[in-house]
Amino acid sequence: MTSNTAAHVVVVGAGVTGLLTAVACARAGHRVTVLERGPVPNPDATSYDQYRTFRALLPGDPGGTADRLAALRHWQELETVFGAALYRRIGTVTAWPEHRLAGIVAEARRAGVAVQRLTAGQLPRLGLPPGTGAVLERPSGVLLADRVLRAAARWLAMRPGVALRPYCRVTAVLPDSGRIVLAGGEVVRGNAALLCAGPWTRELTDHQVTLYRQTILYLRTPAPDAEWWQDAPAAGGLGREGRGWVVPPGAGALLKLSSDTVCRPAEHTDSTGEDQQPYVDRLVDEGVLLGQGRYPPAAVRVCHYTADAATGGPLLDRVTPGLWVRAACGGSGFSTAPLVAERIATAVKEAA
Ligand SMILES: Cc1cc2nc3c(=O)[nH]c(=O)nc-3n(C[C@H](O)[C@H](O)[C@H](O)COP(=O)(O)OP(=O)(O)OC[C@H]3O[C@@H](n4cnc5c(N)ncnc54)[C@H](O)[C@@H]3O)c2cc1C
């Protein structure tokens, strides 16, 4: 790309969406400015955690599965670009009603996702709901989320044409003029902009997005079980209601337990006044882990994310030719960030 066709891309928010979009645009030869209200990366960002799970197979959605496989190729490429290990291919197991298993396996094979059926007996620590069996997806696994953010920030900091601007809080994004206003009054303007401020995105846009709050429990693994967990996959569809998730310990991280049952709409991102114990009790009671009483709790974390109010899923909207808004949602917002980055870098190139 010549300097004549290079654009200036402004990114609001240095979570995974913002940082990977900045990387994609910088690699395409554009000038990039990243505005972040805290440090870069910011431990308060939704993206900042030890792990985020990556699932390749979306049963019933072949297009979605193809997108996930494309995202996986991006993650592999990013490992090379950053020179850092970002992904642990530990596999993901999900529980499904017995009558659906054969269909899911056939669908996975058509999509080119290597899978294997497992029985409850082969997963002795996991609470599969009654009447279910499990499908292990081999290419799936976990992204080392905080390492991703640090590696991207390091790469960007060394790149000419990239301005990482920590402690720059954006107070307004004006779609008509393309102006981005910072606390203190400075105005930043580029040829293109992406608003991806995570749970705080809704403070800067009129888009109808819902804020959700989630309570997560981190556990220590008892010594006799350590060997089993060493090779364990991430697992979902667990517990009596089939809505629990477990991410095994590894790479210095604790075992992580979560469930959709304790995800709730929230008014704001300040959870300091909220008692987490009822949510922790609910998580423990669901039977996601067998023999849960032997796993000492290590930490409780509260996180927020936003989703499209109409669909409950992710939102990526091109508000004007030069302004995108992203609400990345829970479940897939981290793992699909390279697809958003690619889409925006491509659109900026087409417009240049
Ligand atoms: C409990 C939980 C579990 C999840 N599990 C998974 C999973 O397993 N797999 C998966 O793929 N996804 C998962 N997700 C979703 C995923 O983590 C998020 O969708 C994704 O990390 C959002 O990234 P983001 O960059 O859009 O936002 P964020 O990471 O929240 O980043 C937004 C950034 O914008 C900054 N900011 C905010 N306001 C301003 C402002 N006014 N000015 C400047 N900067 C600002 C913030 O400080 C922050 O750094 C999960 C989410 C939660 C909450």
Produce a short descriptive summary.
With 352 residues, the chain is of the alpha+beta class. Helix content is 25%, strand content 29%.
Topology record:
Blueprint: E1 8-12, H1 16-27, E2 31-35, E3 52-54, H2 62-82, E4 87-88, E5 92-97, H3 98-111, E6 115-118, E7 132-137, E8 141-143, H4 145-157, E9 162-165, E10 170-174, E11 179-182, E12 187-188, E13 192-195, E14 209-219, H5 226-230, E15 234-238, E16 244-247, E17 255-259, E18 264-265, H6 277-285, E19 297-308, E20 315-320, E21 323-327, H7 337-351
Parallel strand pairs: 1-2, 1-13, 2-9, 5-15, 13-21
Antiparallel strand pairs: 3-8, 4-8, 5-7, 6-7, 10-11, 11-12, 14-17, 14-18, 14-19, 15-16, 16-17, 20-21
The structure holds flavin-adenine dinucleotide.
Would you kindly provide a written description of the structure presented here, covering whatever features stand out?
- The protein has 352 residues and is an alpha+beta fold.
- Helix content is 25%, strand content 29%.
- Strands 5, 6, 7, 14, 15, 16, 17, 18 and 19 form a nine-stranded mixed beta sheet that branches. A six-stranded mixed beta sheet has the order 9-2-1-13-21-20.
- Helix 1 (16-27) crosses helix 7.
- The longest helix is centred in the N-terminal third of the chain and has 21 residues, at 62-82.
- Bound molecules: flavin-adenine dinucleotide.
- The site of flavin-adenine dinucleotide has 39 residues, from helix 1, strand 3, strand 14 and strand 19.
